[in-house]
Design brief:
alpha+beta, Rieske Iron-sulfur Protein, five-stranded antiparallel beta sheet, four-stranded antiparallel beta sheet, 2 helices, 12 strands
Length: 171
């Protein structure tokens, strides 16, 4: 009876050749930028300051960054977010520090929504005839927060607020 060792019966391990190493490096080099293109790792942008919070209007060209939560960060009911005069009729203002957007669809009719896009958590970038998220081109209705276009799966959540004299105050 002949006996063989394990080394003689097992298949040899494939050798790492220069061609395989360079091919693997090229694959990683091409794949990582493609994967990162859709990631949510972008840093939030700064916006010009108005009132007691940062605000972005339709004139802003900054890119929003993702935010972890759709809840406003301001302490509710403690200080005015904005003057009603700051909110244009047929438009609105994004308050990045508070993560809310205040709109005035018609004269004297104010609405307040979360400024966090329901698609991937980016802050909406501005307001024109709709609330716009430039991360993936979602848009929302000024009066209802309903999705008008883009990949957003749900409307922007309404945020409770009050008008105290001529000031918008988060509730």
């Amino acid at each position: 009876m002949t006996r063989t060792s394990d080394d003689e019966t097992s298949a040899p391990a494939p050798r790492l050749t220069r061609r395989r190493a360079l091919g693997g490096a090229a694959t990683v080099g091409l794949t990582l930028p493609l994967l990162s293109a859709c990631s949510d790792d972008a840093a939030p942008s700064a916006a010009p300051s108005t009132s007691s919070a940062s605000a972005t209007t339709s004139d802003s060209s900054s890119s929003p960054g993702p935010e972890p939560s759709s809840e406003p960060t301001s302490e509710p009911g403690t200080e005015a977010l904005a003057s009603t005069d700051d909110i244009p009729v047929g438009g609105g203002v994004v308050y990045t520090d508070s993560r809310v957007v205040v709109t005035q669809p018609e004269a004297g009719e104010f609405r307040c929504f979360s400024a966090v896009c329901t698609h991937s958590g980016c802050l909406v970038a501005g307001v024109s005839t709709s609330i716009n998220c430039t991360c993936h081109a979602s848009s929302f209705d000024l009066a209802t927060g309903e999705v008008l276009g883009g990949p957003a799966p749900a409307p922007l959540p309404a945020v409770a607020f009050t008008i105290d004299k001529d000031q918008v105050v988060l509730s």
